[in-house]
Structure formats: structure tokens, C-alpha cells
Amino acid sequence: LSFEFAPVEVHLRPGFLPQLIEFFQPPQASSSMTPPSDGEEVVAAVAQEVAEKVYQQIPDEVQLDVRIASPVIHVPVAPLGSAVISLGHLHLVTPKPCAYHGIRFQ
């Protein structure tokens, strides 16, 4: 498995950051939630069956070569201009195929 991502430049418009944070907030719990219908239960059962078939086809071992260049983000800071944020590059490699339980991200 090999991925390579080039850096992307992201320029945020003034006032966009609060909107972005609001977008990722969890929705408010509603007391008008209805219990799942029979159709929804059938769909859930089919989804579970498909997921099990997919899991059966996943190989026992995987070899990784992932290169990611983080995006360069320009955040406007009035009246100073902008702040530039970048996390650099990530290169993740396994020297040989390995089992999933042997891969640890710390």
C-alpha cells in the first residue's frame, strides 16, 4: 500500500475559522428523536453483512509506504496580516509486510 500526498496551500478568508469550528461541533441532542423503523433495521442488517464480507477479504498483513506533506494554512490575523501553519512532512514505512496488530501509531 503506497500513498503520496503533495502539500496544499490553504488560504482562509477572514471570519471563516469560527464557521469551520462551528461546523465540526456535535449536533444538539433532540428530544423528538424517533425509534428506528423496520426499514432502518433492515438497512442496518444489510450494512452489517456487507461489512463482515469486506473484513473477510482484508489481507492478514500489509506493507505501508505513506508520504504526506501537510497543508500550509494561512490564517488571517487582523491587522497584522496572516499566520502561516504547517506541520511539515510525514513518511511512514514498514520494511516488510506485517500484521495489523504489529502496527502502532504513537
Q: How are the SSEs placed, and which strands pair?
A:
Layout: E1 2-5, E2 9-11, H1 16-23, H2 38-57, E3 61-62, E4 65-69, E5 72-77, E6 81-85, E7 89-93, E8 98-99
Parallel strand pairs: 1-4, 2-5
Antiparallel strand pairs: 3-8, 4-7, 5-6
Mean pLDDT: 77
Largest sheet: 3 strands, mixed
Poorly predicted parts: none
Fraction of residues in H or I helices = 25-40%
Strand order of the largest sheet: 1-4-7
Order of helices and strands: EEHHEEEEEE
Q: What shape does the CA trace take? A: flat
Number of strands: 8
Q: Give me the secondary-structure category.
A: alpha/beta
- Total helix count? 2
Characterise this structure.
This protein is α/β, with parallel strands linked by helices and 106 residues long. It is built from two helices and eight strands. The protein has helices spanning 16-23, 38-57; strands at residues 2-5, 9-11, 61-62, 65-69, 72-77, 81-85, 89-93, 98-99. The strands form three sheets. The protein has a three-stranded mixed β-sheet, with no helix packed on it. Strand 5 (72-77) and strand 6 (81-85) form a beta hairpin. The radius of gyration is 22 Å and the shape is flat. It starts with a strand and ends in a 7-residue tail after the last strand.
